[in-house]
Amino acid sequence: MRTFIARRLLGAIPLVLGIATIIFFVVNLAPGDPADRFSSPTMSAEAREQVRVNMGLDQPIHIRYVRWLGALAQGDLGVSFSRNRPVVDIIQELLPNTLLLSFTAIGVAFVMGILLGILQAVRQYSLLDSIASIVGLFFYSMPSFWLALMMVLVFSLFASVWGWPISFPPSDIQDIDYAFFSPIEKVQDRLMHLALPATSLALVLAAGIARYTRTSMLEEIRQDFVRTARAKGLSEPVVIFKHTLRNALIPVITLVGLYLPFLFSGTVFIESVFAWPGMGKLVVDAILQRDYPIIMGGSLVFAMMVVVGNLVADVLYAVVDPRIRYD
Amino acid sequence: MRVRLTRLILVAGLAVTIGACGGDGGASREAGPWMLEASLAEAGAAVQFCEEVTANVSAYMSQFEGQMPPSERHGGAVVVASIGDIPDGMNNHVSQDYTASQHQSFVNLMTLVKYDEDQNPEPYLAESWEVSDDASEITFHIRDDVYWHDGELTDAYDVAYTFKRAIDPETAFPNAAYWTHYEQGPDGVEVVDSFTVKFQMRPHADYIDPWRATTIMPEHLLGDVPSAELRQHPYGTVCPVGNGPFIFVEHREAASWTFQANPAFPADLGGRPYLDRYVYRVITERTTLLTELLTGGVDVFIRPFPDEVQAILDSDVVDLLRYPFRGYVLVGWNARRPQLADKRVRQALTRGTNRQEIVDALLQGYGTVANGSVPPFHWAYDPSIGRDAMSYDQDAARALLAAAGWVDRDGDGVRENAAGVRLAISIKYNHGNDMRQDIAEIMQAQLSQIGVEVTPMVVEWGTLLDQIGQTPRDFDGVVMGWIVEYKLDDTDLFHSDNISETYAWSGTQRPDIDRFLEELPLVVDREEAKPIWSEYQELLVDEQPYTFFFFDDRLDGINKRLRGVEMDARGEWLNIKDWWIPADQR
Amino acid sequence: MTDRLGPGRRGLALSAVLPGLPQLAVGRWGVGGLGLTVWIAFLAVLLTRWARFAAAWGGPLDHQIASLTVVAGLLGTWGWSMFDVSRPVELDRSGVSQWRLAVQAFKKNRIAVIGAMVVVWVYLIALVTPLIAPYDPAMQGPLPGRLAAPSSEFLLGTDHVARDVFSRLMYGARVSLSIGFVAVGISVTIGTLLGAVAGYLGGWIDTVVMRFVDMVISFPRLVLLIAIVALFDTQSIFLIVAVLGFTQWPGTARIVRGEVLSLREREFVEATRALGFSRRRIILRHVIPNVLAPVIIAATLGIGNVIVLEAGLSFLGLGLEPPTPSWGSMVADGRDLLLNAWWISTFPGLAIVLTVVAFNLVGDGLRDALDPRLRA
Question: Which residues form the ABC transmembrane type-1 domain (chain A) (predicted)?
Fold first, then answer.
């Protein structure tokens, strides 16, 4: 197992490098000049050229590539065109927000989804099963930004205007008075701000997870060993949770690996709607603004996180299913 | 590099405020001393810069600890939000973003002069000024009681420094055109004494305008920075230091900017602002922004769309502010194209489009049809120009097209000329802008009725700028917008000398227009200039390099608890230092 | 209790006039309901839109297809119903094939059948749209009529340039459905093949394929999509479909590979190896059919996923060029107007949800029916 992990990590380096190169060339070969966005209509041609020089865009592409790789090796991701700060600083500020959102959403989604899936499997074809399937599908089928907008309107606007007991803040990660809050108030504030975005993200995921768990549980429940367990007189919860679940979770765990890239890029829509200052929104805004350093830096960071995440998923997979051999 | 939090302790001198004393113990943010945090980068010269700067600001401001606030109006925090960020921060040398310049001019920094409602200059940082009789020399006398937020005095050296940076080509100052008629050689600026500075210039109109638009920058902090590094210097976005009514406190990337009242602001100019704190938030999703406004999370929504205004009008919590502005929307025509070369065709395209209906429908009436580049509130505006000549009249349009030789010869509904070229054009617009898309599509529908085939095309912004700005000028028509400066100058757009420059989209080449463009800036007296402006505008109507669409009014949603807000064409943040909130609504 | 009306004059007569009714009468509401509703609806279309129908034959291709669909639908429904009614009643159910059992299990699953009906209906509507859409989807009405609420004149209201939302919704169905179908077709094919090969053969092939999968998965899909749209500077439907399809297959490949890895150790596969079958035969005829269940789930989830992703692209401003309607771009267009013109976004949004739900119900039903291990 250890050699496996070591080999995978080693293999990840050329992988990430390859991704980095592809990103660099795709982005830099796109038509259009990023300097245009940062020049004003009243500037002379010389001034605009000066802007390009200041941004380092006057060099030919292979020189820029080599420079970029060199800087990369030293942990320098360049300076953002649009925000005029080192990309590393920007990412350091925004990444924790995205991670907070993603992991909260994953956690909630997996717990909700697995429990629901188990329930559905145990009561296959019942009314509960049907309703749960349809409701779950309903959420799963919604474009996430649409769900997010609905949540803003219902749980923030209407809740406030119609005087419901609780209404959630629709944007940002914290109140403007956050700095003055006591530690408990700070946690509360974060949770309030996390509520809508994380729920939007989680609902979409949970439905998919529930379906998968249901299928998987159904397969396992029909296995002979389950009948044996029941025949032995074990109580139903023990049968389900201790014996069936472990096998059933195997394909569900692959979902973690499958959902990871979706999670990071899926946060794009949620972050946009809820004005959540995070990586997803950063990278997409950068693309639309042609802010090359952020596009490249941000994509690279995403890719690295996904690679690590997949590795973790594979390890989990092997741990859970003793039939899997990684030799 | 790691990000580390550093405490910036500022004491706002609000030990006790009448009636607002905190029974809520530790979290009394409207009374008593309070702490703010600024985030800085660590390691390296940039960080060192910010650490020193912050320490200095902190030390200077602590002397105002414990001062009693002058009146009951003092207190509270206001939140302004819009969909755009402030990309270059407070660095006036490089920024060209409207929101940035508003924050620089009215919030964090100061300009030498401000405009009153009639666009006449009034003193701000400059106490007074004199112009020589032949208008070749201008001398400014700077106030001696304005301090940078780190304790240094603002003086004439800062003004001279700002000017030199602006005219230095290596800075790539976005509005270098301001200074074309100023003497840019080594003798151009002279620092007479600590508070007096003299500039040489060639006589021209609106010579004060550049000083309304350019904020004075701190020479003691930025003087030694090489030009190429200015843009990315942390001063702009990480630790700005100003001398204006509000002190910079914190910038959360992609989220918010926080400022705090400056207790040292000169009493002559109004003294310390009423508000304790001002927060600018960035929310890109319009529905969310509207929700924040309607639920009280945000006090001011900058520029809602006309279609969104109904919810604001219906709300009990918010008011709508509306005022004319200096931005106009146009469709620029590439007169180099065979279909568009004849000015009668361009006139026909304008007359074939019902612009008033568009204003009524798309802008919900919040706008004025435009026939030239002069905004309706401007002193040079003449409402009669083009009103009849370019009125909506499809029959007249058809007649113009026919006279220019465009007739539908093959019965397909689209006109051709004698050589068989079809009157088929594309109108390009950048995506992300619904208004421009709508205009292109509406023109498509309306112009088809006079035998012109229009194809709307969406193009990515950067690519579009290339297509219209560089040869071979790959476009027929383009929907665009301009925000005009008070110092109107269309030279870049229509003068034939600039015909291969970026902004000569139309390729206008008319000696009579050239003459006007050259003479107008030199006429100093407004009364004299006005009829000349009218003549120039008539020429533009005749030439129709653009179909001028409309000057749209500015709209803002403002929470009713906010008092004293004045906004007009000078900007939304115009008098932010005079905004206040009644004590019971903070 | 027989399960069909049996050959007899009453059944035939009924079937000739209202195909589907005899089937309904004996409780086969799925096929019966579908047949009857198609018959009645298409007949109505034919009668009320005769002019358009007749003109369609000389018109553009999609008009011809629409008319063809009406004709085929009418003939097909009538013919099937007559055939079905005149077949002898089944006596014996022994010796029925796996597939027959699966179909019967599927038919027992009510919501799956409903889902199937919805899917068929959506596709039929999409095909017949040119005949039934009340307005041209690209035609703008007079400007004062923009943002009009749903009314008898404009069933689902008008959008911000006074176009009929209802017509755009129907035309948008064609676009969204096609994108979904083709993209998923590409991705499932590639994914299944590669996943099965990698999982079964193992070794260096597995490593290579999975490295490749890792790379494509790790690649921020959105970035690639957006960058390519920008690079080619067009928003062509082919490009979008291609990129969507070619970035979706790793998911299927992983699932298939996972299943195959488990399957590989099972007894029946060992048996085929013992019998000396070639690897190709084992993979194609024994392994893949047994991983079809997760592939089907993947495919149905996939279609929905692609439709939703296309909506996301439109949200970022990279959907199809206007005035081409797609459900995604309609939702995106209306999102700033949710408070004062909710119909622009809401109806396409509902359409997306409904269609995707229907696909997924079908997928679930098929899976339940096909997997012998899951049947009660």
Answer: 95-313
Q: pTM higher than 0.95 for the full model?
A: no
Give how far the C-alpha of residue B67 lies from the chain's centroid of Cα atoms, to the nearest Å.
36
Q: Which two tokens stand for residue A172?
A: 């940002």
Of C351, C332, C162, the closest CA to residue B361 belongs to: C162
Cβ-defined contact of A48 to B172 (cutoff 8 Å): yes
Query: Distance (Å) from the C-alpha of residue B46 to the closest C-alpha of chain A?
Result: 10
* Residues B267-279: b if buried by 16+ CB within 10 A, e if exposed: eebebbbbbbbbb
- Asked if B359 and B465 touch (Cβ cutoff 8 Å), the reply is no
User: Along the 327 residues of chain A, how does pLDDT read in single tens digits?
Assistant: 678 778 878 877 887 787 778 778 777 776 666 666 666 555 666 777 777 776 667 777 788 888 878 887 777 888 888 888 888 889 988 999 998 998 899 889 988 888 888 888 888 778 888 788 788 888 877 888 888 999 999 999 998 888 888 889 998 888 888 888 899 999 999 999 999 999 998 998 888 888 788 878 877 777 777 777 778 877 777 777 777 777 777 777 777 766 776 666 678 889 989 999 998 888 878 877 778 888 888 888 887 877 777 777 777 777 766 666 655
Q: Tell me how far apart the alpha carbons of residues A232 and A230 are, in angstroms, rounded to a whole number.
A: 5
Note whether C265 contacts A: Cβ–Cβ < 8 A: yes
Instruction: Determine whether the interchain pair B295/A156 forms a contact, defined as Cβ–Cβ distance below 8 Å.
Output: yes
CA separation, residue C324 to residues C145, C168, C179, C329, C333 (Å):
20, 9, 13, 9, 12
Radius of gyration over alpha carbons of chain B, in Å? 26
CA angle B381–B383–B386, rounded 5-degree value: 110
Across the interface, of B233, B295, B460, the residue whose CB is closest to A157 is B295
**What interface predicted TM-score (ipTM) does this complex get?**
0.85
Alpha-carbon span A273 to A271, nearest angstrom:
6
Strand arrangement, sheet containing B77-82: B246-252, B256-261, B277-282, B77-82, B300-302, B554-559, B318-323
Nearest to B545 by CA among B497, B502, B489, B490: B490
Q: How far is CA B50 from CA B55, B91, B400, in A?
A: 8, 14, 64
Asked if B291 and A170 touch (Cβ cutoff 8 Å), the reply is yes
CB-nearest to C143 from B310, B358, B456 is: B358
- Domains of chain A, earliest start first: 90-320 (1.10.3720.10)
Chain A CB within 8 Å of residue C208 CB = no
Report the alpha-carbon distance of residue B230 to residue A54 in Å, rounded: 9
The chain B residue lying nearest C333, using CA atoms, is B434
Helix axes of C110-132 and C343-370: crossing angle, nearest 10 degrees? 140
User: From CA C201, how far away is CA A26, in angstroms rounded?
Assistant: 34
> What sign for the dihedral angle of Cα C153, C154, C159, C163?
negative
Long-range contacts of C52-58 (CB under 8 A, 24+ apart): C52/C130, C52/C131, C53/C131, C56/C130, C56/C131
- Going by C-alpha positions, the residue among B153, B151, B155, B150 that lies closest to residue B53 is B150
B/e letters for B508-530, b = 16+ CB within 10 Å, e = fewer, are bbbeebbebbeebbebeeeeebe
Per this entry, what is the length of chain A? Answer: 327
The secondary structure of residue B239, as a DSSP letter, is -
A40: closest chain B residue by CA: B174
Of B354, B361, B458, the CB nearest to C322: B458
CA-nearest residue to B309 within chain C is C340
Q: How far is CA B140 from CA B132, B143, B195, C195, in A?
A: 12, 10, 8, 77
A133 vs A144: CA distance, rounded Å: 18
Instruction: Give contacts of C353 with chain A, Cβ < 8 Å.
Output: 138, 141-142
- Determine which of B314, B363, B442 to mutate to test the interface with C (most C C-beta atoms within 10 Å): B442
Strand order in the sheet with B477-483: B367-369, B546-552, B327-333, B477-483, B424-430, B453-459
